[in-house]
Design goal:
The protein is mainly alpha-helical and about 350 residues long. It has one domain. It is about 75% helix and about 0% strand. It has 17 helices and no strands.
């Protein structure tokens, strides 16, 4: 069965062998989503701290890099429609699927259908999905999709920032977003719906990506990457927390967080553009970030369940790198099924 899926993957890689000059962006997205999967394993703390320091900002920067101002200028309804189709529709489909799996297989069999705890958990899960509270407590099997609502909100905020024609006004608004993000990270304030609070800082990262595309900074700063990488690494390691979390508004030292995430993300752009502009396997993962993001936690649950249930696996230690490999392998058929059935589902509703 696995061999069959690998053959399908090979076919997909050939099909996705695009000639576009932005293939390196798919490589960057692929690197980012692979780091997301790695970060969700039981990895060493130092690995987690490094990954968490920039992998989510990287995706906001990519979104800003790909943002088409000319397409959306003075066309707010078009922006909403496009981004709703790109982010919110997948969010809804993934949320419903994971909710059903949780209700029937995970929660139902484990706790018992109809029990008080069963009903309470399902209600809590439903509230979490509507609110988009991306934690294991509120969205057990699909909490990473918090990013989809956050990036949707960031695109809306970003639209209004770019509607201001002057650079000064844009910078004033971005500074305001930075101040709000800093304040929210320091006070015990209620998490805002649809991750609006995370989207404030995400918009700032989007603007960095927008500037990178506009001025082709990743092309102009070829050798600067050798300098800014150690600076970014120093900023990350100097931050006084175990890991950064845009989801939970945990930033630690705000300045070090900004420097580390921005510098390392820029380095990823530079190194990928010059050293790895094409890699079909990583590109393929980059083209399928949403299903990977959406089903990664579900795969993790089943990998750990298999390890506990099947005797042959009990003899093998489930180290973080073994878990990572199995997660990647199981995500391949899920991606294939998503690409096959998601368009049909969307078309039918």
């Amino acid at each position: 069965m696995l061999l069959r899926w690998m053959i399908k993957l090979k076919s997909e890689l050939k099909k996705n062998n695009s000639t576009t000059n932005l293939r390196y962006i798919d490589v960057i997205k692929g690197i980012g989503i692979i780091l997301v999967v790695l970060g969700h394993t039981q990895r060493p703390e130092i690995v987690l701290k490094f990954i968490q320091s920039f992998h989510m900002p990287l995706f906001f920067i990519i979104a800003g890099f790909l943002y088409k101002r000319d397409k959306y200028i003075s066309k707010f309804s078009m922006l909403i429609k496009t981004k709703f189709n790109s982010y919110i529709k997948p969010y809804i489909i993934i949320a419903i699927f994971c909710y059903i799996i949780y209700a029937i297989i995970i929660c139902g069999i484990k706790i018992g259908f109809g029990s008080e705890e069963y009903i309470n958990r399902l209600i809590r899960y439903l509230i979490g999905l509507i609110y988009s509270r991306g934690t294991w407590y509120w969205m057990p099997q699909c909490s990473p999709i918090w990013f989809l609502t956050a990036i949707f909100v960031s695109n809306i905020i970003f639209y209004f920032i770019l509607e201001n024609k002057t650079l000064l006004k844009q910078l004033i608004l971005l500074t305001f977003l930075l101040i709000i993000s800093f304040i929210l990270s320091k006070i015990n304030f209620i998490k805002l719906p649809w991750n609006i609070d995370s989207a404030f800082l995400g918009t700032v990262f989007m603007y960095l990506g927008y500037l990178m595309k506009r001025f082709e900074l990743h092309k102009r700063l070829k050798w600067v990457g050798l300098i800014i990488f150690p600076l970014g690494l120093f900023a990350v390691l100097s931050n006084n927390i175990n890991y950064v979390s845009m989801n939970s508004i945990i930033y630690g030292n705000f300045l070090f967080m900004l420097l580390g995430s921005m510098l390392l993300s820029v380095c990823i752009f530079i190194f990928t553009y010059y050293l790895l502009p094409e890699c079909r396997l990583i590109e393929w993962f980059g083209k399928n970030t949403i299903p990977i993001l959406g089903f990664n936690f579900l795969v993790i649950y089943f990998v750990k369940s298999i390890w506990n249930i099947i005797p042959i696996f009990n003899a093998i230690e489930l180290t973080w790198y073994v878990e990572f490999i199995f997660n990647i392998l199981l995500l391949i058929p899920i991606i294939y099924l998503w690409n096959k059935f998601y368009p049909k589902i969307i078309k039918s509703i």
